[in-house]
Amino acid sequence: MRQHTIRKPVGIEGIGLHSGKVARVTLSPAPPDAGVAFKVRSTGERIAARPESVVNSHYATTVGANGTRIQTVEHLMAAVAGLGIDNLDIEVDGPEIPALDGSAKPFVALLALAGLAQQSARRRPLALPCPLRVGSSGRWMQIVPSETFRISYTLDNDHPAIGTQVLSWAPTERSFVEEFAPARTYGFLKDLGLMRKNGLARGGSLDNAIVLGNRGALNGLRYRDEFVRHKILDLIGDLALLGRPLRAHVIARNGGHALNIELVLAIQRAVGLERRAAVAVPARADAAAASTDAARRDGFVPAPGLAAI
Ligand SMILES: [Zn+2]
Q: Which residue has the higher pLDDT, 287 or 26?
């Protein structure tokens, strides 16, 4: 499988969900192995779309470098990953990626308009060295090695419009475009005042989010289980920060951006540790290696310094 970028630059403008400020993004082709990177127009700062660039994951994923930040990158990142784009420059004129309709659908349409271009370099899927788990009793995520990528998600919420929603999905480009990209973000009317006081949801409206009142959604749903679909979309966007397609099965219960990023960092650390260990220690069956192997066979190896089982 080869890497892909887009054929020509395209742009779109809109209001940020949290900042309420207008921003413009321009997407441009990038060379093989360049990855996805943001460029902030006002400062010229380049921020790689990488796990180490995440500076905040409260309600949205914010990346930053040297004091410059770009908020709410996840829906655009999900569209990029969902269409199989590896290399892309994203110039941002403003503090936040536009919310548009609250889903990844408008970004998918924009990327489709640009067209995809195959590149000479090969894609390098990321294989997991061992299972990992992050989170605590009611909110957790685990990831296990698998030949194909799959997400199984359970969302529980006592709001009558949500309840318990369960979905297991092995992504294809077509199912991403039709069944997940259009799922919108959502918020509770009762939380809106406090969120706005804290500088969040200032651009939120019925045009870019499902708003839940006491009894139900104030606007119509695109899918009966749109909420769990959006959770999966957010997870795809956050996992895209790894920069490589995953060969693993993610099983999640009631996650959010903070937990998604915790998982992304755990994956990055596990892959990095495994690589370093392979270089440092020649393959020999000593006692330590045998006991690690046994632990791996028996179950989950917690991510160093991150897991809270
Ligand atoms: Zn979202």
A: 26
Q: Is position 305 within any domain? A: no
Please report which confidence band the pLDDT of residue 259 belongs to, taking 50, 70 and 90 as the band edges.
very high
DSSP state of 37: E
Which residues crowd ion ligand 1, with CB under 5 Å?
Answer: 185, 234
Domain that holds residue 14: 2-122
DSSP notation for 142-189? EEEE-SS-EEEEEEEESSTTTEEEEEEE---HHHIIIIITTPPPEEEG
Q: pLDDT per residue over 212-254, tens digit each?
A: 999 899 999 999 999 999 999 999 999 999 999 999 999 999 9
Same domain, 152 and 269: yes
How many angstroms does the Cα of residue 284 sit away from the middle of ligand 1?
Answer: 46
CA of 299 to the centre of ligand 1 (A): 31
37 touches 30 (CB < 8 A): yes
Provide the CATH number for the domain around residue 186: 3.30.1700.10
Q: How far is Cα of residue 166 from the mean position of the Cα atoms in its chain?
A: 19
What are the catalytic residues?
Answer: 257
Which pLDDT score is estimated for 287?
46
Residue 260 structure tokens: 């998604």
pLDDT value, residue 305: 37
- Domain boundary among the residues 107, 122, 137 is at 122
In-domain check, residue 50: yes
Contacts of 106 (CB under 8 A, 6+ apart): 12, 100
Answer yes or no: is 89 within a domain.
Answer: yes
Name the more confident of 273 and 79: 79
